[in-house]
Amino acid sequence: MTRPDTAAPAGRPVKAAVFGTGSWGTAFGMVLADAGCEVTLWSRRQELADAINTTRVNPDYFPDTRLPESVRATTDPAEAAHDADFTVLAIPSQTLRGNLAAWAPELAPGTVLVSLMKGVELGTAKRMSEVIQEVAEVPGERVAVVTGPNLAKEIVARMPAAAVVACRDETVARRLQAACHTPYFRPYTNTDVVGCELGGAVKNVIGLAVGIADGMGLGDNAKGSLITRGLAETTRLGLAMGADPLTFSGLAGLGDLVATCSSPLSRNHTFGTNLGRGMTLQETIAVTRQTAEGVKSCESVLDLARRHDVDMPITETVVGIVHEGKPPMVALKELMSRAAKPERR
Ligand SMILES: NC(=O)C1=CN([C@@H]2O[C@H](COP(=O)(O)OP(=O)(O)OC[C@H]3O[C@@H](n4cnc5c(N)ncnc54)[C@H](O)[C@@H]3O)[C@@H](O)[C@H]2O)C=CC1
Ligand SMILES: O=C(CO)COP(=O)(O)O
C-alpha cells in the first residue's frame, strides 16, 4: 500500500509500531497489516516476540489466530519505533507515563502517536492523549485516538466492526483512517478528541455498573436504565470539558457502551458481574487476567467529574462498590433513592 496522503514520501509501505502485544495491540496490529501496513509489535517478553516471529501466532492472547506475514515483533523499543509513520500505544493506561518516558527518545521524527487506551490517569485526571503530548513533547495535532465498539476477540476473528479515528488535525485522522481501513474494520474520522477519549474511558465504568447489575440478577430494565443514564452522565462530563455532545451518540459513546455492556467478552462487564455475584475485589482481580481499565479509571473519572463540578452518580456508585467496600445492594438502594429530577438536567 502506498501512503494515503501526498505529504508522505512515496515508494514504501506505511510503517506502524505497536507498543503492547496484549489483546488490543495484537488485534489492531493485525488490522493495520491487513490494511497494507508493515507492523512491528513491541513486546515486554522475549519469548513472546520470538513466538510471534517464528510461529506467526501470539500464543498468550490469540493462540488460534495466524498473524499476517507483515507483522513482526521485537523487545527493542528503538527497533520497533524506527521509521514508524504511526506509533500505536496499547498498554494499560496507568503505565503509559513511565513507559512512554523511556520510549520517547526512540520515537521516529514526525511520527503520529496513536492511543488505543481507554483510561484516565490516576492522580492527574489526564486523558491519554494529554499524557502523550506532555511526555513525548508533541503537539495535539500529532496525537490520535482509535476508539469505538472493538472487542479484540471479535476483531481478530475479522468480524465486522466500525470505529472512530480521532485527531485534532483532520488530515492526520484521514491518514490513519486509510492506514487501518479493511473490509471488516470501518473507521470514521472525528476531530473531537476529548469526547472520543471520554466516551471510551467512562464506558468502562458504566460497563462495570451494568456487570454488577447483571451479577445481582437485576434484569434488562436495569441494564437499559444504566446504559442510558450512564450515557447521560458521560455527556454531562463531556459538555463541561468542551466535547461535542453529538460524539456521545456515536461509536465512541453509545456504540462502545452497548458493545461493552452486552458482551461477555468485555473484561469490565465480566469484572462487574463477578462483583455482583458476590466475589470480593481481591477474588475478582485474581480471576481477571487482562486489563479492566474501569477498575482504576472509575476513581480518576470521578476525580475529573469533581474537578468540573459534574454529578456522576453511577460512577460514584461504582467507586463505592469497587474501592470502598460498599455492598452492591446498599449501593443500589442509595442510587434508587436519590432525589427525583427531570430527565434532561
Ligand atoms: N481488549 C480490547 O478488546 C480492547 C482494549 N482497549 C484498550 O486497550 C488498552 C490495552 O488493553 P488490552 O490490550 O486489552 O490489555 P491486555 O491486558 O490484553 O494487554 C496489555 C499489554 O500491556 C502489557 N503491559 C502490562 N503492564 C505493562 C507495563 N507495566 N508496562 C508495559 N507493558 C505492560 C502486557 O504485557 C500486554 O502486552 C486498554 O486501555 C483497553 O481499555 C480498547 C479497545 C478494545
Ligand atoms: O473497549 C473495549 C471494546 O471496545 C473492550 O472492553 P473491555 O476492556 O471491557 O474488554
From TrEMBL:
Keywords: Cytoplasm, Lipid biosynthesis, Lipid metabolism, NAD, NADP, Nucleotide-binding, Oxidoreductase, Phospholipid biosynthesis, Phospholipid metabolism. Its EC number is 1.1.1.94. Residues 15-172 form the Glycerol-3-phosphate dehydrogenase NAD-dependent N-terminal domain. Pathway: Membrane lipid metabolism; glycerophospholipid metabolism. Substrate binds at K118, R267, N268. GO terms for biological process: carbohydrate metabolic process; glycerol-3-phosphate biosynthetic process; glycerol-3-phosphate catabolic process; glycerophospholipid metabolic process; phospholipid biosynthetic process. One of its GO terms (cellular component) is cytosol. NADPH binds at S23, W24, R44, R45, Y61, K118, A152, R267, E293. Residues 192-332 form the Glycerol-3-phosphate dehydrogenase NAD-dependent C-terminal domain. It catalyses: sn-glycerol 3-phosphate + NAD(+) = dihydroxyacetone phosphate + NADH + H(+); sn-glycerol 3-phosphate + NADP(+) = dihydroxyacetone phosphate + NADPH + H(+). NAD(+) binds at G20, T21, G22, S23, W24, G25, A152, R267. SUPFAM superfamilies: 6-phosphogluconate dehydrogenase C-terminal domain-like, NAD(P)-binding Rossmann-fold domains. It is found in: Cytoplasm. Sn-glycerol 3-phosphate binds at K118, G148, K203, D256, S266, R267, N268. PANTHER family: GLYCEROL-3-PHOSPHATE DEHYDROGENASE, GLYCEROL-3-PHOSPHATE DEHYDROGENASE [NAD(+)] 2, CHLOROPLASTIC. This is Glycerol-3-phosphate dehydrogenase [NAD(P)+]. It comes from Streptomyces ficellus.
